[in-house]
TrEMBL record:
Pathway: Purine metabolism; IMP biosynthesis via de novo pathway; 5-amino-1-(5-phospho-D-ribosyl)imidazole-4-carboxamide from 5-amino-1-(5-phospho-D-ribosyl)imidazole-4-carboxylate: step 1/2. Residues 11-272 form the SAICAR synthetase/ADE2 N-terminal domain. It comes from the Bacteria. One of its GO terms (molecular function) is phosphoribosylaminoimidazolesuccinocarboxamide synthase activity. Its EC number is 6.3.2.6. Belongs to the SAICAR synthetase family. Keywords: ATP-binding, Ligase, Nucleotide-binding, Purine biosynthesis. It catalyses: 5-amino-1-(5-phospho-D-ribosyl)imidazole-4-carboxylate + L-aspartate + ATP = (2S)-2-[5-amino-1-(5-phospho-beta-D-ribosyl)imidazole-4-carboxamido]succinate + ADP + phosphate + 2 H(+). It is an enzyme of class 6 (ligase). The keyword Electron transport does not apply. The keyword Acyltransferase does not apply. It comes from Microbacterium rhizosphaerae. This is Phosphoribosylaminoimidazole-succinocarboxamide synthase. InterPro entries: SAICAR_synt/ADE2_N, SAICAR_synth, SAICAR_synthetase_CS.
Amino acid sequence: MTHDLPGWRHVYSGKVRDLYAPDDASTGSGGGGDGRAQRMLVVASDRVSAFDHVLSPDIPGKGALLTALSLWWFDRLAGGDDGRSIPNHLAEGEIPDAVAGRAMLVRSLDMQPIECVVRGYLTGSGWNEYREHGTVCGIRLESGLRNGDRLPAPIFTPAYKAPLGEHDENITFERTVELVGLERAEELRDLSLEIYERAAATAEEHGLILADTKFEFGVDEDGVLTLADEVLTSDSSRYWDAAAWAAGTTPDERMASFDKQIVRDWLAAHWDKTGEPPELPQDVVARTADRYRELLERLTD
Ligand code: ATP
Ligand code: MG
């Protein structure tokens, strides 16, 4: 469902977010002609996706929680208390009342077709590849690692950002170079690792493990590589409880998640990934909403 927002027109819906561009017929909110970058409104819905499918029903309050988390991280990373200031896509301006709390006003960037994944711990698709081949995105790792283990050092494991409806595909660094050139690929990798390290350290101060995360970058009109999309949210990241991880022995005990793992686990147990996914039961919806809320509270006190 999209909104009827005065001054804006709906241009695109991803799995979770709806994008609006300034309505040229109106004056004000937009941008463009005066030399500023075009503005865009990114509205986070309550939709939840897993295994590249949008699920039903929605998770109440999720869009607002994702937006609050992104804004908190953008601010922290730009503030530069714990490192240099990371440029982001946020823009100044008014957000329509109808989407207040769940929308970000951003500069429209030339998006890079790469999902910049950083993993500090081994799990998910990385674990699956490791189990079969001993590698993650072509990077060979030491043998004997278990699901949920900490990696000797964080690794950059990019994915090709597939068009809507297709599956994102894990790719090697060499393939990334072919897609965006060596210089840009190195810049994406280094910046992603830098942001991950800083965020993981912050998470640790709050008793959380940032197991892995995904960034998206765009290039602005001055050619500056800029952090875009959502950042370090419970949709784009795996967060675990640090104490549970340290004390636990089974994967379930160790990976007490503040993210949509609850949804992934339930689906994996109740769906063979053919045809349409089943409706999520109410308790899965409620537990997911609770965990998203708890993450924001723990991080931001
Ligand atoms: P998923 O993230 O679940 O794989 P998706 O990427 O298809 O889904 P959403 O995240 O729901 O879609 O939609 C957000 C879209 O907006 C993405 O295509 C993202 O690349 C794009 N986007 C984010 N920030 C900017 C920006 N500053 N300029 C241009 N496009 C942006
Ligand atoms: Mg996205």
